[in-house]
Design a protein that fits this description.
By secondary structure, this protein is of the alpha+beta class. It is built from five helices and six strands. The longest helix is centred in the N-terminal third of the chain and has 35 residues, at 2-36.
Length: 177
């Protein structure tokens, strides 16, 4: 009888320990995935795609694609493109991606640098896009001079026009243009 009671107590203790270990492991995995998942430094500036300043910026970016191609073939510090992205919640976002390589005259290999706000689940940050997919572009030359970034500049102008105080980091970025 004693052996049975002792075995039952040991088994109960093992099950309790197993549940605790499983719970701690689950919480650790959740915390790791949450930490690893990219999140924006600050929320996106709210702008309407119909805003005349944004429309002008998009037109300037499209009309400057030949300049963008030329800048891609020259020595540079970095190159970014802005792409239309449809998230898992079917929301359209506009994300910046770093140009990693020029795959052809019309195709780029990119890595998303702006995490989507409305997307959930895993998202491969490496993509291929065509120049037709590019809504805006930005190239920083080796000497630090920045070309492009038309929608970014428009967002800053819209925010100022609408009385929005830009976060300090965005003010620093704005001065780089």
């Amino acid at each position: 009888m004693r052996n049975r009671s002792s075995l039952k107590g040991t088994l109960t203790m093992a099950i309790d320990t197993g549940i605790i270990v499983a719970a701690i492991t689950g919480i650790a995995i959740w915390a790791f995935l949450r930490w690893r998942s990219p999140s924006p430094e600050f929320p996106p500036l709210s702008t309407s795609p119909d805003d005349p300043l944004m429309q002008e910026a998009l037109a300037r970016a499209k009309s400057g694609m030949e300049q963008f191609r030329q800048l891609l073939s020259a020595p540079r510090e970095s190159a970014l493109v802005k792409l239309r992205f449809v998230s898992s919640s079917n929301q359209v976002e506009h994300l910046w991606a770093e140009v990693l390589e020029v795959l052809s005259n019309d195709e780029l290999g990119v890595r998303l640098v702006t995490p989507p706000v409305t997307h959930s689940g895993n998202l491969d940050r490496l993509h291929r896009c065509t120049l037709e997919d590019v809504e805006d572009w930005q190239v920083r030359e080796s000497n630090g001079k920045i070309h492009g970034g038309f929608t970014q500049r428009a967002m800053f102008a819209i925010a100022r026009r609408d009385g929005v105080k830009l976060p300090k980091r965005l003010q620093e970025i704005e001065r780089e243009y």
